[in-house]
Amino acid sequence: MLHPNQFQVNEAWIIFKLNDAPLRTEDGAFDCICLMDAASCFILGNAFIPVNEREPTQIRVRQLLRDGWQHKQEFPTKLFVPIGQLETNLTEEAEHQELKLFVYPKAN
């Protein structure tokens, strides 16, 4: 399990789905995807993704990472994602930004 004291600020970011059940609005049902600094637990950005999309598009992933970049004007060296969440488009964008992607078991 990941713990904040394992990292320095801006060394690693974690991207994850915040909700277990869809968030229902007048516009439909959404999942909230968050980008968080692993050391400080500061939320760097978020995106609401329609549940029928299953994961953010490449453009949304790129925007979420840019939102995080705005805070320090640099990317971390590591990006963590829970197993089975957001791996497809995130993998391609992480490679494009030269971020090392780590997949980890999601805590219960």
Strand content: 25-35%
The overall number of domains is 1
The CATH H-level homologous superfamily = Ribonuclease H-like superfamily/Ribonuclease H
**Helix amount, in percent?**
10-25%
Catalogue the unreliable spans: none
Q: Just name the CATH architecture.
A: 2-Layer Sandwich
Largest sheet: 6 strands, mixed
Molecular shape:
globular
Structural class: alpha/beta
Instruction: Work out the number of β strands.
Output: 6
Averaged pLDDT: 89
What fold name stands as the CATH topology? Nucleotidyltransferase, domain 5
Count of alpha/pi helices: 2
Rg estimate, integer Å:
13 Å
**What is the string of SSEs from the N terminus onward?**
EEEEHEHE
CATH class: Alpha Beta
Distance between the termini: 10 Å
Commentary on this structure:
The chain starts with 11 loop residues before the first strand and ends with a strand. Helices cover 23% and strands 34% of the residues. The chain has helices at 58-72, 87-96, and strands at 12-17, 23-25, 28-37, 43-50, 78-82, 100-104. The longest helix is centred in the middle third of the chain and has 15 residues, at 58-72. It is an alpha/beta fold and 108 residues long. The protein has one domain: Nucleotidyltransferase, domain 5 (2-Layer Sandwich), CATH 3.30.420. It has 2 helices and 6 strands; from the N terminus they run E-E-E-E-H-E-H-E.
